[in-house]
């Protein structure tokens, strides 16, 4: 039997093994991760602002204050925060998996956005509309929520049960090496879905030319 014939026979079965498909368990598109992460950030910023404002005023004044200015503040903060994050690629899957880098970047971005809005409020002489205590509470509570979401995304994306389908690729490997080397896990974390598997023989000794 020739080497060429042996390799051709090894590549003849394009079906991806059932046990490998079960391990991957594709559930959601890889391309939906960024929009979902951005939507969650926007919701957390708005919820954080309103929660901090309500809690602060109930604690200090014993009553609820006008929330309309704070809704506007939260909306503007969310727009600026998401715009900067999207342009820097922070919401890509490969970036969301890097928890340390994510925490550093969102802390810097959050601080820059709030400082910009503070300077803008003073320049427009509308700072008196907002309670200083409420805005400081929003700053701290908001960053805690955002960091918490990054921890959640890191766990979710790294979970071996939940994978994300995207580009389909063909996997060519030696017999038994795909599962042992963690190739399937690595591909899934980068949004690659093996549609076909080609297994090459590991031992070609004794094969006739």
Q: Could you list some keywords that capture this structure?
A:
about 210 residues, mainly alpha, two-stranded parallel sheet, disordered N terminus
What is the string of SSEs from the N terminus onward?
A: HHEHHHHHEEHHE
Instruction: Pick out the low-confidence regions.
Output: 1-26
Computed over alpha carbons, the radius of gyration is 25 Å
User: Would you report the number of β strands?
Assistant: 4
Please characterize this protein's 3D structure.
The chain is mainly α. Helix content is 62%, strand content 11%. It has a two-stranded parallel sheet. Helix 3 packs antiparallel against helix 7, helix 4 packs across helix 6 and helix 6 runs antiparallel to helix 7. The chain is elongated and about 75 Å long. The relative contact order is 0.19.
What's the SSE blueprint?
Elements (H helix, E strand, L loop, with lengths): L2 H8 L7 H7 L1 E4 L3 H28 L7 H20 L5 H4 L2 H25 L8 H27 L4 E3 L1 E8 L2 H4 L2 H7 L2 E9 L9
Parallel strand pairs: 1-2, 3-4
Helix pairs in contact: 3-4, 3-7, 4-6, 6-7
């Amino acid at each position: 039997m020739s080497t060429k014939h042996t390799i051709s026979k090894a590549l003849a079965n394009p079906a991806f093994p059932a046990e490998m498909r079960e391990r991957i368990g594709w559930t959601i598109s890889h391309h939906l991760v960024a929009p979902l992460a951005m939507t969650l950030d926007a919701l957390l910023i708005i919820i954080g602002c309103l929660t901090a404002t309500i809690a602060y005023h109930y604690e200090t004044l014993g009553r609820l204050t006008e929330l309309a200015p704070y809704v506007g503040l939260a909306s503007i903060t969310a727009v600026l925060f998401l715009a900067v994050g999207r342009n820097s690629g922070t919401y890509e899957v490969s970036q969301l998996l890097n928890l340390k880098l994510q925490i550093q970047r969102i802390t810097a971005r959050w601080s820059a956005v709030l400082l910009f809005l503070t300077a803008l409020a003073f320049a427009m002489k509308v700072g008196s509309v907002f309670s200083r205590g409420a805005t400081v509470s929003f700053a701290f509570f908001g960053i805690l929520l955002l960091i918490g979401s990054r921890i959640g995304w890191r766990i979710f994306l790294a979970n071996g049960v939940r994978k994300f389908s995207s580009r389909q690729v063909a996997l060519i490997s030696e017999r038994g090496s795909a599962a042992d080397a963690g190739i399937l896990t690595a591909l899934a974390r980068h949004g690659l879905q093996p549609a076909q598997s080609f297994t090459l023989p590991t031992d070609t000794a004794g094969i006739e030319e």
